[in-house]
């Protein structure tokens, strides 16, 4: 069950994972299982969601994810009465190799999709829920949106993040030579500063995975008052976890968006 108070907050930004820590090691089997589920989800047929006015919810996936990883959460949100759209696949495109590009490149793909929503489908405003790097992509688009495009893009009114690495990914510098996206998510990255600035204006909730083996929980939020800790959640549970965890995620997203309407 989620908690809406942070009982033992961790300072965001500088936390490093201690591989010798027994509690951390205990989380690795669930992380490995979640990673496998996520990879299998990238091979599924992508659900054809049809966002529509007046204000749809746009889902943005993170690294190693095609849009099909949002099938479960999207279906549940849609069954709860929301109009849902899922961002296109980001380079590189196939299976778990999707969305490993620099975040600026992903923003370009995402922004062109937003423009189509506005120009072709008449969507003038929208909310966003982004998982992991997907939350950063959505916020970076807003932080770098050119003034001359404002009339061709939907106005984004509210953002919910799920396990977004605002404080960085501890192994980012080590993995940066192999994974371009990691060049943008180390603790001192300029991209993170831009995302945090946009988050301070638009994020209404940070959903925090309380048993995350990838991103320390304290790195997943910028405002403690907006942090909802999802107890026992691994990094991928929001989108490919058990049905009850996807259900809990959907209910939290809807709760925050309705509370802010």
Description:
By secondary structure, this protein is an alpha/beta fold. It has one domain: Alpha/Beta hydrolase fold, catalytic domain (Rossmann fold, 3-Layer(aba) Sandwich). It has eight helices and seven strands. The protein has helices spanning 22-42, 71-79, 103-121, 133-143, 172-175, 190-202, 237-240, 243-260; strands at residues 2-3, 57-60, 84-86, 125-131, 155-162, 203-209, 227-230. The chain has a seven-stranded mixed β-sheet, with helices on both faces. The protein starts with a strand and ends with a helix.
Strand element count:
7
Rg measurement, Å: 17 Å
Morphology call: globular
Name given to the CATH architecture: 3-Layer(aba) Sandwich
Structural class: alpha/beta
Give the count of helical stretches: 8
Oligomer: single chain
The CATH C-level name is Alpha Beta
Low-confidence stretches: 4-20
Strand order in the largest sheet: 1-7-6-5-4-2-3
The average pLDDT is: 88
Strand fraction equals 5-15%
Topology order in helix (H) and strand (E) letters: EHEHEHEHEHHEEHH
Distance between the termini: 24 Å
| CATH homologous superfamily annotation | Alpha/Beta hydrolase fold, catalytic domain
Question: What is the domain tally?
Answer: 1
**How much helix is in the residues?**
25-40%
- CATH domain topology: Rossmann fold
Sheet having the most strands:
7 strands, mixed
């Amino acid at each position: 069950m989620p908690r809406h108070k942070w009982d033992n907050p961790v300072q965001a930004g500088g936390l490093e994972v201690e591989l010798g820590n027994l509690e951390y090691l205990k989380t690795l089997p669930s992380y490995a299982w979640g990673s496998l589920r996520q990879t299998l989800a990238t091979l599924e047929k992508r659900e054809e969601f049809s966002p529509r006015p007046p204000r749809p919810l746009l889902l943005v996936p993170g690294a190693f994810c095609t849009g099909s990883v949002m099938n479960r959460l999207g279906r549940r949100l849609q069954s709860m009465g929301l109009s849902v759209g899922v961002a296109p696949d980001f380079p590189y495109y196939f299976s778990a190799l999707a969305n490993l590009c620099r975040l600026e490149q992903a923003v370009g793909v995402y922004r062109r999709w937003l423009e189509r929503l506005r120009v072709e489908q008449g969507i003038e405003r929208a909310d966003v829920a982004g998982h992991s790097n997907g939350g950063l992509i959505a916020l970076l688009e807003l932080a770098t949106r050119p003034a001359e495009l404002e009339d061709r893009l939907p106005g984004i009114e509210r953002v919910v993040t799920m396990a977004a690495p605002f404080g960085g990914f501890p192994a980012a510098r080590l993995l940066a030579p192999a994974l371009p996206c990691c060049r943008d998510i180390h603790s001192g990255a300029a991209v993170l500063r831009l995302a945090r600035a946009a988050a301070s204006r638009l994020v209404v909730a940070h959903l925090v995975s309380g048993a995350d083996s990838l991103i320390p929980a304290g790195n997943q939020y910028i405002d403690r008052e907006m942090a909802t800790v999802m107890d026992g959640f691994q990094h991928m549970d929001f989108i490919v976890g058990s049905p009850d965890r996807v259900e809990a995620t959907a209910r939290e997203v809807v709760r925050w968006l309705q509370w802010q309407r």
